[in-house]
């Protein structure tokens, strides 16, 4: 721990209006409940339904767990703070929150790349799909995701934890993150801004364009084989593209051009912490034929048990 004079930070939150606060509390409480129930339902289906024991759904179940974890680092604290006049977070809790946000974010980026690779293999090399996307490869993707997330977080965290904080302690957001905290440090922030931009910014933009290129390559490959199958490929990839755009837009806004003077970024990150995690179960359930069939099987099994 450094020799900071600041022992805690004051989060300014989202709104000071009482009417807006009540509305936001109710809204985010429902969203968080939806995140927990929706993503746990996907994990439950993947584990219990033998027809979903495939690489794609293994990765999807891991993505659902990461969505729950990422949301849990910020949303419960945000909901509880909405009802408090003074929103305080300790220095240690703030650093821990930053660390977990970037670990989970790094894991999610790798999982999205793995899911894009899975779709590429399924569409472009269907005969070799099971040999390429073996259980060993799928587990390796998850392990690589966690290793990448930890390295990504710690490479920035090691700089921030040693910064001297001796003056202002108000954070214009509902959560702690590198850009906002570095601005409060009693030191020249330029080199630390560069570290965040070079790390989080490069990782966010690089992953985003890599995913877009992979989807374009898949669509071109399908179009060359049969233009009639292009619409089917678009339907298959549309869920993935939606998730990617929703997840990476706030990341690139904050980290590629870091340290904005406005507070717009804190509202954008509501998409990453609350909107995208609650939409993922909807996108992957109602736009996926196998998941719909699995839900029907689950209903039939429940009816059968009741009759028996």
Question: How would you summarize this macromolecular structure in one to three sentences?
Answer:
This protein has 308 residues and is an all-alpha fold. It is 75% helix and 3% strand.
What class do helices, strands and sheet pairing give? mainly alpha
Shape: globular
The share of residues in extended strands comes to under 5%
> How do the strands line up in the largest sheet?
2-1-3
Number of distinct helices: 11
Secondary-structure element pattern, one letter each: EHHHEHHHEHHHHH
The rounded Rg comes to 21 Å
Topology:
Elements: E1 8-11, H1 18-48, H2 55-72, H3 75-82, E2 88-90, H4 91-124, H5 129-132, H6 135-160, E3 170-171, H7 178-182, H8 190-225, H9 230-255, H10 264-286, H11 289-307
Parallel strand pairs: 1-3
Antiparallel strand pairs: 1-2
Tell me what the structure shows:
The chain is mainly α and 308 residues long. Helix content is 75%, strand content 3%. It is built from 11 helices and 3 strands, in the order E-H-H-H-E-H-H-H-E-H-H-H-H-H. It has helices at residues 18-48, 55-72, 75-82, 91-124, 129-132, 135-160, 178-182, 190-225, 230-255, 264-286, 289-307, and strands at 8-11, 88-90, 170-171. Helix 8 (190-225) runs antiparallel to helix 9. The radius of gyration is 21 Å and the shape is globular. 37% of the residues are buried.
